[in-house]
Write a structure and sequence with these properties.
The protein is mainly alpha-helical and 156 residues long. The protein has a domain of 100 residues: Tetracycline Repressor, domain 2 (Orthogonal Bundle), CATH 1.10.357.10. Helices cover 58% and strands 0% of the residues. Helix 1 runs parallel beside helix 4 and helix 3 packs across helix 4.
Length: 156
């Protein structure tokens, strides 16, 4: 595969069940890992859905309306946002188990922040939610979570 993706290492595919070509799980050599590709696939799909002409105006209207309606805000969170955050947390946890991220990090807050950055771009920013933006976001988070020993309590 050309470009920033591993050549012969990991394939960019939907199931992303592990490394190819004899590389150890979690191996990181400056390119993207299986965990990054797993999250990327989810965020590319979510970003495309969030920005689709059929969904974007409806989603924006629901978010706006939910600011004054506690029941609607709870329903929006429970039926949509919590589901995406859990999927993100599941992917981060798989990457952690594979040795791609520090073992003792609590990944709940990073999962929430990753999703929040995507929603911010899609709802409020004039910048695109494209593959380059998603890659940049994931590069920053994956690099940080490889280096942190714990997420500070103040941010939980």
């Amino acid at each position: 595969m050309a470009g920033p993706w591993r050549s012969g290492g990991f394939e960019d595919r939907a199931d992303l069940d592990g490394p190819r070509g004899g590389e150890a799980p979690g191996q990181f050599d400056g390119f993207r890992t299986v965990g990054h590709l797993d999250l990327r696939e989810q965020f590319v799909r979510s970003g495309a859905a969030l920005l689709s002409p059929a969904i974007r105006p409806v989603y924006r209207a629901v978010v706006i309306a939910s600011q004054d309606d506690d029941a609607l805000r709870e329903r929006l969170y429970r039926q949509f946002l919590a589901v995406i955050e859990q999927r993100t947390l599941d992917r981060l946890t798989r990457a952690q188990r594979a040795g791609e991220l520090v073992a003792d990090a609590d990944l709940t807050y990073p999962a929430e922040v990753l999703c929040g950055a995507l929603y911010y771009r899609g709802l409020l920013s004039t910048r695109p939610v494209d593959e380059a933006a998603i890659d940049g976001l994931l590069d920053v988070f994956m690099a940080a979570l490889r280096r942190l020993s714990v997420i500070p309590r103040d941010f939980r």
